[in-house]
Design a protein that fits this description.
The protein is 51% helix and 15% strand. The protein has 9 helices and 8 strands. A 6-stranded mixed sheet has the order 1-2-3-4-6-8, with helices on both faces. Strands 5-7 form a two-stranded parallel sheet. α2 (67-74) packs across α3 and α4 crosses α5 (146-164). The longest helix is centred in the C-terminal third of the chain and has 22 residues, at 222-243. The radius of gyration is 18 Å and the shape is globular. The termini are far apart.
Amino acid sequence: MMPEIRIERPDAGVAVIRLDAPERKHALVGEMARELTTAVRDVDQAEGVGAVVITGGPDAFCAGAHLELLAAVAAGDAGAERDIRAVYEVFDAVRAMETPTIAAVCGPAVGAGLNLALACGVRLVGDNAYLRSMFVANSIHPAGGHLQMLQEVGGRALAVRMAVLDQPLDADAAVAAGVAIAAHPAAEVEEAAVALASRAACEPTLARWINRSIAAVHDLDAVAGAQFEAAAQRETLRAKAKLG
């Protein structure tokens, strides 16, 4: 079987993780999910990588978990149960990355594919983007952290809008809802994402440190958060002074 995940290095300090199963719009199956988790962890440990772009290309981001896999889970197939857990592990791995992540989303990002996009730190979308929860349409409850991630990105209203009412977002609606930070022509989204990633990649160690700090201060109160940031800043200032 040909690998369905590729790692590319288009610019110094930037890694692109590319889903490569265009015949099914990059829908996830068990082995592909395991490949993706391995790629995510390998890139996160790679020296000199300051930012990561995750993409499927200009036509599709990820069409979710493959329907045959979902049908096998519904039938109680033990192997399919292991495979769907492998799909969920992808989102945990992406969210746990120390390296900043950018999703370059074109075409469909539905179901588990939307989860993958939401697991990234920020998202850029193409003008052909189609973001949809899709779980209600498939008569199954969301999973993989779907509801939590929707609320983290846009609050309860976004979770209800997408997961309960099954309202899809096009590119403009995704930007308006705060799900994406910018929209571009589909052919230019990956280039824009790499350019954005390069801004962090010029200081890879610091970029990873700040990204860790964002997670660390999330559950702190204002005073504790400010103290945490001040201590980290003092450490960087001392390191900068030593370098002259």
